[in-house]
Each structure stands twice: as structure tokens, then as C-alpha cells.
Amino acid sequence: MEYRQLGGSGLNVPVLTLGTGTFGGDGPLFSAWGNTGVKEATRLIDISLEAGLTMFDSADVYSEGKAEEILGKAIGKRRDQILISTKATFRTGDGPNDLGSSRHHLTRSIEASLKRLNTDYIDLFQLHGFDARTPVEETLSTLDDFVRAGKIRYLGVSNFSGWHLMKSLAVAEKYGWSRYVAHQAYYSLVGRSYEWELMPLGIDQKVGAVVWSPLGWARLTGRIRRGTPPPANSRMTSQLNADIAPPVDEEYLYGVIDVLDEIAAETGKAVPQIAINWLLQRPTVSTIVIGARNEEQLRQNLGATGWNLTKEQVARLDAASATPLAYPYFHQAGFERNPSPVA
To answer: What pTM, to 2 d.p., does this model score?
Structure first.
């Protein structure tokens, strides 16, 4: 397993991280993702560690905290072999303070995650989303306190826009607080808007990408084709999951899948392996969060590493997945002093 530096930090992380969204399966949203219990989770962690995958990602809202509990139990006495990342910000209860990035909510959330994970520190803690109602200074000072207390080692964010992240980095620098070194962001062959602003920001500010949903919300599993319904066990068969999925035009999707199928025939690799390998060759990508309902899916995703697509194959995938740029990015692309980082 290849290891990469997480942004500008001194922490090395495996290029693949196992996500725990499939752990638990509680609630209408996460029941469509999977229902992995402690026994199955322990087996997935065993396989991951054998392959050199040592990082596991969770969140307090995954199955209402059950995913963290299962991860903590499955890790057992192997805490020193493992990197744990988790997240908080989204609503965890009915009260007026049961959401957001306030000192009140973050303090309660982090302490609860530590208890569920059965650990006294979190390797990478990320804000799950930007809270526009809480002052950035309040959020960052709270997180810095946890870092100084040894309960968090590195900080990151998720689903921020460029100005959200840049403002936060500037405030952290102003006060000498711990800065964000990671951005858990959506990026896939059928979702490339990360490249427009967040990737250049990541290069400039040394913020590593922790990629979520690298298979385009289960669209690039190799089981979706023209004229056929989604597989019965796909998350896309859940209306709730389909409603919150990143939007993708169907003909565009099928065009990308056509090229993936061609390259699969050339390489002997599975479609998901090719989609993940393409991401591993993009700037700023530190690690990719893969999901697995079972051992078979995990082993297949692990097979995305240890080889590389050719430059010609990457170029074909680039061309098939290219989309028109929004303003101001299409205007900026015409200026030779402002080139795309992936051009």
C-alpha cells in the first residue's frame, strides 16, 4: 500500500481509507448503504490491515453513532496500528444546539465520539460541513483546544466551498491556531467540479484531499448500464439516497462508462478499480475513502492500487468525463497565467 503525506502535515496516510458508512445500517438513509455488524467489521479491518490499509473513516451521524461504536469494538486492542478519522457538525438530536460547529456542540460531539470509538484521541477530526451561523473564530479556537489537549491530532473539513476553507485557514494563521490539513470532498470521474477551485486551493495551501464517493455515488460500480435498472442492492434503489445523490446526466454517465468498459477490457481490471486508479493520479489527492458491504467488495477496491493507468488511458478518461466549466472558471481557463492543475 502506498502512503502519502496528508496535505502539508507530517502525517503519512494510506492512499485508500475504509469508510464505515456501511457499519450499523440504522435509519432510512444508512440502511441502504449496508448493515455491517461487529463480526463482519472485524473481518474487514483484518483484511485492510493485511493489505496495508490502516486508516478508517467514520462520522457521528453514521447510523446515529452506531458506526463509531462498531468501529471501536472491531479495532479492539489494535489502536496503535490504526488511524481513525471521524466527523461532526450535522444534527444529532432535536435540541437547538444539537448541530453546528459551536463550542457547545463540538465539545459534546467530540467527547461522545471518543467514548463510542473507545479511544482517548482521534487522529483526524473533520467538520462535516460549514456552519455559517457560528463565528469561524469560535470553531477554530475550540478545535485548537482539543488539539492542545491531545484529544485530536490533525484537523480537516468536509464539503466546504473555497472561501469557507480559505477564510478558516486565514483565521487560524492570524491567531496561531491549528490549521486544517485535509478536505474530505466529493470527487469522481463523473463529478469533477472539485478541480475548479478546491484543487488549486489545496495545491496552494497544502490541503490534502480525502475523497468521498469515488465511484460517483455507486454509479461506477460496473453494474450500471444503458437500459437496465440499478441492481437490487444498490443504494440508488433507495429514493432517499437517490434524492441526495450528486446529480449526473444519464447520457454523460453512460459515455464515461463506455470508456471505462474499453479500458477494463484492455487492462483486465474492474471498472471500480479503474475509476479509483484515475483519482489516485490527480493532484492533491492524499487518500480515497472506499466503502465495502462485504469482503469481496473490499478486496476488489484494494485492487485499485499497485498499478497505474497509462497516460493515454488517463487522457481518454479525462476527455470522456470533461464537462463545461461554470463562471468564472471558463473565463479563467482562457488566461495562460492561470492554467488548470490537471491540464
So the answer is: 0.95
Is 62 annotated in the active site? Answer: yes
Going along the chain from its start, the domains and CATH numbers come out as 3-332 (3.20.20.100)
* Grid-cell match 490527480, residue found: 282
Active-site residue, selected from the candidate residues 3, 62, 194, 252: 62
Separation CA 227–CA 183 (nearest Å):
36
Could you tell me where the DSSP H helices lie in 191-324?
198-205, 239-244, 250-267, 271-280, 295-302, 311-321
What average pLDDT does this structure show over 318-324?
97
C-alpha span between 5 and 13 (Å, rounded): 6
pLDDT digits (tens, 9 = 90+) for 128-149: 999 999 999 999 999 999 999 9
Q: Where are the beta strands (DSSP E) in the chain?
A: 3-5, 12-14, 16-19, 55-57, 83-88, 122-127, 152-158, 180-186, 208-212, 285-290
Residue 16 identity (one-letter amino acid):
L
Half-sphere exposure of 311 (CA within 13 A, CB side): 2
Compute how many other C-beta atoms are within 10 angstroms of the C-beta atom of residue 7: 23
Place of cell 487518500: 287
**Average pLDDT of 115-127?**
98
Tell me the three state secondary structure of residue 40: helix
